[in-house]
Amino acid sequence: MAIAVSPTGRELVLLECLVAGTTHRAGLREFEPQLQPGQALAVERESDSTFDDWAVRVLTADPDAFWLGYLPEGRNETVARLLDAGFPLTARLTHKAWEDDWLHLEIEVLLPAH
Fold it and tell me: Which positions, given as ranges, span the membrane (predicted)?
């Protein structure tokens, strides 16, 4: 996993990836206009997942958080372990585009610098 300093210099970019499972999120097509590149997102551990031992949800970072999907399986273990250890990880939307019925969401997972 490559780690880079974000353009703002205030956090480390731990992972750049697509959000998995967006085609399975009810209401996402209607919600999509509210998503903007640069928008802050939240990552949340789903430790009771029966499909992926390292499941990490991706949500909007507001009081009425909207569940967008997951970090991709196979690329989520380090982030899951950091969340389990209490690290305050966040995420940021970097790009969005529709490809037929699939909402392509690219994100960065971030570790705030101290």
Answer: none
100: CATH: 3.30.70.2330
Name the CA dihedral angle for 39, 45, 51, 52, rounded to a multiple of 10 degrees: 90
Per the structure, the count of domains in the chain is 1
Which contiguous run of DSSP H or E holds residue 3? none
Range of the domain at 82: 22-108
The residues facing 69 across adjacent strands are: 58
Say whether 63 sits in a helix, a strand or coil: coil
Tell me if residue 83 falls in helix, strand or coil: helix
Residue 1 covered by a domain: no
- To the question of pTM greater than 0.85 for the whole model, the response is yes
Single-letter amino acid, residue 109? V
pLDDT digit string (tens) for the chain, length 114 residues: 445 555 556 899 999 999 999 999 999 999 999 999 999 999 999 999 999 999 999 999 999 999 999 999 999 999 999 999 999 999 999 999 999 889 999 999 999 987
